[in-house]
Design a protein that fits this description.
With 246 residues, the protein is of the alpha+beta class. Helices cover 16% and strands 42% of the residues.
């Protein structure tokens, strides 16, 4: 990397290496403040716990299939049995994001408010849980939207824990928004069959959660504020560089 001095700015020397490094940082984004599921091993090997009331009926070994790029959870035919992954790394203040790329192949349920392939956060005060049904996406015990859930989509659940509100989008298209469902501790992040009445066969190829929105490779959609900041920063840096080259 060229480390020549471009000039002085506000009493400080500005080096070419600084310009290059700053451009790289703006292009790559700030250090990730998100956890990303690795499909090279089962979630239980990455700090997740497989929760089930009856390991004989539903278990990680019997109902979860892992491939190098996809995780499948299948609880079809298990009656009231359920099994899901939980992680205690939930946030309970500010804004957090839960992003997942998933599809559902089959569902069975007795209660229209419960879907057996669900994703969400329980922050100790409220629950923000969305379920994928056949042709429908539903907020737990709340509103729903028609959507083709049989193919993979990238869903983003954005949660404002302070305001107790959420919004859900799929491939950048707004689907649902509203208030969280009052729900006490413990707090956690969970995905899978989280209900006692709904079962499903669903597949997952991406999951991330945290303060920063992390999207699947090739599917990143920076927030408008981030894009504006990157553009302004790059423009200022390039203008300063051109000015000092002449």
């Amino acid at each position: 990397m060229n480390d020549s001095i471009l000039g002085n700015y506000g009493g400080f020397q500005v080096r070419n290496s600084f310009i290059q490094a700053t451009c790289l940082l703006l292009a790559a984004g700030s250090p990730a403040a998100a956890a990303i599921l690795n499909f090279g091993s089962l979630p239980s090997a990455q700090g997740w716990t497989f929760e089930t009331p009856n390991p004989v009926m539903v278990s990680e070994a019997g109902n979860v299939t892992l491939s190098p790029s996809m995780l499948e959870i299948n609880t079809m035919g298990e009656g009231a049995g359920y099994g899901y992954y939980s992680n205690p790394g939930v946030l309970n203040t500010g804004v957090s994001y839960l992003a997942f790329r998933a599809r559902v192949l089959a569902t069975e349920y007795a209660d229209q408010g419960e879907f057996g392939f669900s994703f969400g956060e329980w922050d100790g005060a409220a629950a923000y849980v969305v379920g994928l049904g056949i042709g429908t996406v539903r907020f737990y015990q709340g509103s729903s939207a028609s959507y083709d859930t049989s193919v993979f989509h990238t869903y983003v659940l954005a949660i404002d824990h302070d305001a107790a509100t959420y919004s859900l989008s799929a491939d950048g298209n707004p689907l649902l928004s509203g208030s969280g469902l009052a729900y006490g501790p413990p707090g956690m992040i969970g995905f899978g069959d989280v209900t006692g009445g709904g079962n499903a066969q669903g597949q997952l190829t991406w999951l991330s959660f945290g303060r920063q929105l992390e999207m699947p490779p090739g599917g990143e959609v920076p927030e408008p504020g981030t894009v504006a900041l990157m553009g302004a920063g790059l423009a200022a840096l390039l203008a300063f560089r051109r000015r000092n080259q002449h």
